[in-house]
Design goal:
- The structure is a single chain.
- The protein has one domain: 3-Layer(aba) Sandwich (Rossmann fold), CATH 3.40.50.
- Helix 1 packs parallel to helix 2 and helix 2 runs parallel beside helix 4.
- The chain contains five helices and two strands; from the N terminus they run αβαβααα.
- Strands 1-2 form a two-stranded parallel sheet.
- By secondary structure, it is an alpha+beta fold.
């Protein structure tokens, strides 16, 4: 049921793609969700892992081929360069904080 809900979301964002390992069940679930969404709904993948390493990261070559074929067949790629926003935002917030006790 949860996988069906993911398949029906208008825009699915997969953040931190490529971090951690995938077991066989997770790969199968990912393939199912991607397969249900392809050509129907938007999927955004945010990653630091270069695309040429995705196949190895996904693991099982057959499942990796199927997932990447569906993801990359009609994708639009955007590369963002620059400083990490989390670091910049953290510094800004830290500077703006006032001490609790003067």
């Amino acid at each position: 049921r949860w996988l069906q809900q993911l398949a029906k979301i208008d825009v699915l964002v997969l953040d931190d793609w490529g971090i951690g390992n995938l077991d066989a069940a997770t790969r199968a679930d990912l393939l199912e969700v991607i397969d249900d969404r392809v050509g129907q709904r938007a999927t955004i993948i945010a990653h630091q892992l270069p695309i040429e390493h995705w196949h190895a990261w996904l693991g099982d070559p057959t499942v990796a081929d199927a997932i990447l074929d569906r993801l990359l067949q009609s994708c639009r790629r955007f590369s963002l360069d620059g400083r990490v926003c989390r670091i910049l935002c953290k510094r800004t917030i830290h500077r703006r904080r006032k001490p609790a006790y003067p």
